[in-house]
Here is the input.
Amino acid sequence: MKILGVIRDNNYLEYLKYGLDGIIFPLENFSVDYFKYYSISDIENYKKNTDKLVFVVINKMIFNSDLDNLLEILKKLETLKVDGVFFYDLAILNLVKENKLSLNLIFNQTHMVTNSDTINLYYDLGVKGSYLSNEITKDEILNIRHNTKSDLFVLLLGNPVIAMSRRNLLTSYFANKNKSKSAIITIKEPKSGQEFLVKEDNNGTTFFYNKRLNLSNIYKELVDCGLNYGIVEQGNYSYNEYKDLIAAFVNFNKDKIDELAGHNRGFLYRETIYKVK
Amino acid sequence: MKKIELLAPAGDLERLKVVLLYGADAVYVGGEKLSLRANATNFSLDELKEGCTFAHNLNKRVYLTTNIVFHDKDRKGMEEYIKEVIDCGIDAFIVSDLYLAKYIIDNYKEVEVHISTQDSITNISSAMFYRDLGASRVVLARELSKGEIKEISSIPNLETEVFIHGAMCTCFSGRCALSNYVTNRDANRGGCAQVCRFAFDYDSNDKFTLATKDLNMAIFIKDLIDIGVSSLKVEGRMRSLYYLATVIGSYRFLIDSIYDGTLTDEKLLEYQRRLDSVANRDTTSQYFNHLADETDQYYTGRQEVSNQEYLGLIIGYDEKMKSIVLKERNYFKVGDEVEIFTPNGEIYPYKIETIYNEDNEKIKVARHPEEILKLPFDTRLIPYSMIRLIKKG
Here is the structure.
């Protein structure tokens, strides 16, 4: 399994030497649900400095006014020969097809990458990679691996994205309270005790789970089953912590990972219900 | 030019009949599998068949929601179920998952595929992708402005469906798993617990809320017709008969009056008031004219009010006593001024002077919901006529 990083500080080239196989770049103005965004020139700079993998995220909802710029961006990414583009909106697939762009696309519809048939359909449509949803079980991950040819990506470690709104929920909330706005806040659902980070930017508001997901306990199984890419996000780790975390995945050391990241296994063993008796 | 469609929700067979009688051109329902309202009273195959027959006899249509984001195990029996519901007579599927959409398009030319709002279609290019796949209609994201809706509605050979009334999601449909994380109920498989209506602890003095007001587009129906939208959709498969009758009846009136050029400002205001009277939250037009902001949100708790003006459902006529027979819903008494309204749009102002109970005894006050009562009235009314309170006596 190749390990990909999502970097929050400015040292993105630095971390490559600790064993990352590549970096995922959320593209500014065209991606949501991240804490740091990158420009095309950041990606150009990366390409000049390393041969390691580079993936780009374009996962915002696309509006008509975005379409012209989006096509230009896709053409630039084709020229840059990035290794893949994570996409949410089907406009991207449509534009790539219409313009016969040579871009490797990765199906990345946050909570909706949950079954083998749909992944296979995307594969047949030319989408050769899929970033699995965090809300599926371990058995479902293994089953999808067994049933598909698609390159599969999972979040090995990071704060799962829970929800995304076009609304500026923090601006509205603080305006209503007549208080100065914070760009990120932490909220807690009192009955369940679950905490969420709420972050607003120009594209709306994202909710993150405030407990890191850590799949270290099934890492070996994921490797053995042939899962292709694991994503390790920096989140709020310091330079040294994140460096240690990368090393602990590269030279697999479960105890070290758990020491740094805790034991939240998400939905690996917890199937969600949808019919309430 | 084809007249715009009024599309209504129905959580069960009785609601299906009510909304079609009150003027919906089509109805959307959930079946026992693959629907995003897993806890609604969804339709069995027999009910679906009866509903389709009822609708088709009125020259109206039935759409089946099969819009869950399925997991591998939900796949079991999918093909058989699709065939069974087509045999029941449905006219279209409302689908979210691309695999399921393509499966139906490739195998069943006799039904339409509409792409669910769960896919949050927000631009021309993604809408064209679905058209080229073979979908006949896209249900647009609720986050779009008038201009954005107009541009997508200009795509040839593709219908657009737009929500006009009812509850709103705070987040993009399909892009929310709050329910999964807080209650372990899967938002994208029909178990949404509406966590966006919960209050969250933020600091010691205050709660953080993110709930939205409801949608009401009554004053913009003409705009939606003018910009080329094909279908106007009302939310609320689990709403009451009275709510559905009032909302669907009101929009039927507005649409017809716009087409025949008779809608006046006074009438628009009257129907706007009528719609407000059955709402249990404040309403706005959300994104239609501006990016939704604090005026479209709730910050003072749930603010939901129960509606007490629905007095009864008329279920028959007593020829001997020359009285309508009704099933009581809410308290009323002698002296109250009410309106009796019918699915045909007829409205009869009426002052309650005598109430009989089921034993034909005179009573002064009706205080037991579900009680069978009679009110003297000269005319036999069609089924599903209702009574609403106008002024307490």
Chain B touches chain A through 71 residues (CB under 8 Å). The two ends of chain B are 48 Å apart (CA to CA). DSSP finds ten helices and 22 strands in chain B.
